[in-house]
């Protein structure tokens, strides 16, 4: 299994999808950094040193960081789906899986090895992406992102959820069908998350429950909301002159914030979700007639 994981990790970096994702990520970082420079020149880095240390100024920097993380999540999710969408189905369609099947390697080890190899690639990619965004924000605003380590862990967790879903799909569906299903589920989770946050803003219980249901179907957006809450809740008070007393800081982020914050139980559910989907993938793959 570990040899398969190492082989998959090396192969993942050589695929065109990884090269395309790397090029798009670099372009994104250049565009984001350029926009950040011109925005913070007028918004955050004011001529008044006291204002730069205010809570409001830090919330501006966090808002820019959160928007970057929100958009970066799409790239990480896309890489997770495209890297794994044909990991089993594609090899069956190309006939290359039969070469591996005659070797003394169980289907469970084959599948889990592929998952671990792709997961290692995604963890590396997501960690570098997250730290690059945090570094750009620090460079332009001077703000060290609060809760950097737990936020990093949550950002890494997002593509792993998509990876588990795609690994289950590739054991049964065609490459195209699996890709369509994975992206559709991700879109459902993102839209549901937006509905939940807007529902929290307007105090609509039905809208909040709608978002909770979509989070149970695919908890990727819930992980993002918890990441945002982790950063905002650990924001220091600044110079203490403009601490909001009657306004929830999450409301300043609008639908990109976390008015309805996922609990620790949702994080536990996410971890169990990944394990259960992997177990289901192994079960389906073992029973599939190839």
Automatic annotation (TrEMBL):
<dbReference type="GO" id="GO:0140359">
    <property type="term" value="F:ABC-type transporter activity"/>
</dbReference>
<feature type="transmembrane region" description="Helical">
    <location>
        <begin position="57"/>
        <end position="90"/>
    </location>
</feature>
<dbReference type="Pfam" id="PF12679">
    <property type="entry name" value="ABC2_membrane_2"/>
</dbReference>
<keyword id="KW-1133">Transmembrane helix</keyword>
<keyword id="KW-0472">Membrane</keyword>
<feature type="transmembrane region" description="Helical">
    <location>
        <begin position="175"/>
        <end position="195"/>
    </location>
</feature>
<dbReference type="GO" id="GO:0005886">
    <property type="term" value="C:plasma membrane"/>
</dbReference>
<protein>
    <submittedName>
        <fullName>ABC-2 family transporter protein</fullName>
    </submittedName>
</protein>
<keyword id="KW-0812">Transmembrane</keyword>
<feature type="transmembrane region" description="Helical">
    <location>
        <begin position="111"/>
        <end position="139"/>
    </location>
</feature>
<feature type="transmembrane region" description="Helical">
    <location>
        <begin position="265"/>
        <end position="285"/>
    </location>
</feature>
<feature type="transmembrane region" description="Helical">
    <location>
        <begin position="145"/>
        <end position="168"/>
    </location>
</feature>
